[in-house]
Design brief:
The complex is a heterodimer. Chain A is an alpha/beta fold. Chain A has a single domain (about 5-260), classed as 3-Layer(aba) Sandwich (Rossmann fold). In chain A, about 40% of the residues lie in helices and about 15% in strands. The longest helix of chain A is centred in the middle third of the chain and has 16 residues, at about 145-160. In chain B, β12 and β13 form a beta hairpin. Helix content of chain B is about 20%, strand content about 35%. Chain B contains 6 helices and 15 strands. Chain B folds into 2 domains: about 1-105, no CATH class; about 115-230, Pectate Lyase C-like (3 Solenoid). In chain B, the strands form 3 sheets. A 6-stranded mixed β-sheet of chain B has the order 5-7-9-11-14-15, with no helix packed on it. By secondary structure, chain B is an alpha/beta fold. Classes of the chains: A alpha/beta, B alpha/beta.
């Protein structure tokens, strides 16, 4: 029996879908079987980020309505045999799914996969309640901005009401330089306010956006910090204790020379 | 003479047995420290050489509480025999935690207002409302809201909204271990804390109250100087 984890945030645009795709792919890299569910009905994009959009025939709404079997709707990833995506419908709207139907689908998938990730839509209404219906655990994604932290706080409260105790926190798109200069909330401050366990900190990286457009999860490229951060998150989910990696760039040779000469970086 | 007697009787020289009247009988509280002989002798005298009608009158329910006192089974039986010899005693309880004793100490205090203790963080969008005083053991995050008809105490960081005395009690106060609220409301008065305060963290608990000039914030140790009526219960 696998574990179902909902990835949620409240606020839109903080990186739920990117995090779902990358954490899921990272777990597949570590040899786990993973299914990613896109629960954002009407605004599907998990398939785009995974580069699988032109393979969709059936979607989660079809499965819920009994128009196809669950296996028919699952799309196999290009890179990993044991990584599947269950896409959202683009034509229906959010009310097309009911919590009970999703709970049943998630139960079925848990029997076949080690991990089932549910990509939750933004907001806290019907779509949110549908997405959290079958989940055993929750990951809350936030960015180091006040509005995003506020929404994450609200969502944690709602998750606790739904009996999803002790959600885990991913702080996404952090910019070490801005934090250092005090223009961005720092990790400690966010963790203090939200008072939940920190699962990982992902630095802001343009590569992530480029890869999303290309339809290739960033974790496939281990040379970026964001990729390493997502891989570390996957290992922490498996129970390894991986220390947080240092985020600020090591000063390079030339910047050190420049500093020695008395110039600014 | 009587005054002198009282003066010499220091509080720590307590008799080894204290007798309390409880709802439906008598509660004997045995001292936890004193020697067994002392206790037995005292009980002997109390139970058999005492002319008090209460101890030798009509049938009465008796609870005996020996608390944390350590006794051998023999000592225990020896004491129990003394009580059993009293024909008008109906022994209901003989234990280290009698119901009678618990009822005695849990007696609700007079004029005490109902209190609600909220354990855990009050998060954005959550509202806690209570008719009485509210104690929050945890933080109140930005966007979280506490409303009480009485006082509000936050053992944590108050960063959300607190409204004390929602039904118009201007004597209500709001106290917090760390005071950086979005808004404070007491009865009908509302204030916003200056933004600059956000960073200055103080190491002591503070409370907000209403005075003639409006809302004021002071250290918690001045609470009973400013609101003397809150002393007591």
């Amino acid at each position: 029996m696998g574990t179902a984890i909902v990835v949620t945030s409240g606020k839109g645009g903080v990186g739920k879908t990117t995090s779902t795709a990358n954490i899921g792919t990272a777990l597949a890299l570590l040899g786990k079987s993973v299914c990613l569910i896109d629960a954002d009905i009407g605004l599907r994009n998990l398939d785009v980020v995974m580069g699988l959009e032109n393979r969709i025939i059936y979607d989660i709404v079809d499965v819920a309505n009994g128009e196809c079997r669950l296996e028919q709707a699952l799309i196999k990833d290009k890179r990993f045999e044991r990584l599947m995506v269950l896409p959202a419908s683009q034509t229906k709207d959010k009310t097309a799914l009911q919590p009970g139907a999703v709970r049943k689908i998630v139960q079925n998938l848990k029997a076949q996969f080690d991990f089932v990730f549910i990509d939750c839509p933004a907001g806290i209404e019907h779509g949110f309640r549908v997405a959290v219906a079958g989940a055993d655990q929750a990951i809350v994604v936030t960015t180091p901005e006040t509005a995003s932290v506020r929404d994450a706080d609200r969502v944690i409260g709602l998750l606790e009401q739904e009996d999803l105790q002790s959600p885990k926190l991913v702080i996404n798109r952090i910019r070490p330089r801005m934090v250092k200069e005090g223009d961005m909330l720092d990790v400690d401050e966010i963790v203090q306010v939200l008072a939940i366990d920190l699962l990982g900190v992902v630095p802001d990286d343009e590569v992530v956006i480029k890869n999303n457009i290309k339809g290739e999860p960033t974790v496939m490229r281990p040379d970026t910090k964001a990729a390493m951060a997502y891989r570390n998150i996957a290992r922490r989910i498996l129970g390894d204790s991986v220390p947080l990696m240092p985020l600020d760039d090591q000063p390079g040779f030339w910047s050190r020379v420049r500093r020695l000469m008395g110039g600014k970086r | 003479m009587a005054v002198l007697d009282n003066a010499t009787q220091r509080p720590e020289v307590r008799p080894p047995v204290s007798v309390k009247g409880v709802n439906d009988g008598l509660l004997f509280l045995l001292d936890e420290q004193c020697a067994h002989e002392v206790l037995r002798a005292f009980l002997q005298e109390l139970l058999f050489d005492n002319p008090s009608p209460l101890l030798s009158g009509p049938q009465i329910n008796v609870s005996v509480d020996y608390g944390q006192r350590e006794m051998t089974p023999e000592q225990n039986i020896e004491l129990m025999r003394l009580f059993l010899q009293k024909e008008n005693f109906t022994i209901r309880e003989w234990s280290s935690r009698t119901m009678a004793r618990q009822a005695l100490f849990a007696k609700p205090q007079r004029n005490a207002r109902p209190q609600y203790i909220h354990r855990g963080t009050v998060r954005a969008g959550q509202q806690v409302y209570y008719d009485g005083d509210v104690v929050v053991v945890g933080d109140v995050n930005p966007g979280g809201e506490i409303a009480a008809t009485g006082d509000i105490f936050v053992f944590g960081r108050l960063r959300g909204i607190a409204h004390a005395g929602v039904r118009g009690n201007t004597q209500s106060i709001i106290a917090a271990a760390e005071f950086s609220p979005m808004q404070l409301r007491i009865a009908g008065t509302l204030t916003r804390v200056p933004e600059a305060r956000g960073q200055a963290q103080s190491a002591f608990m503070e409370f907000a109250y209403l005075c003639e000039e409006g809302m004021a914030v002071d250290k918690l140790q001045y609470l009973f100087a400013i609101r003397p009526k809150k002393v007591g219960h």
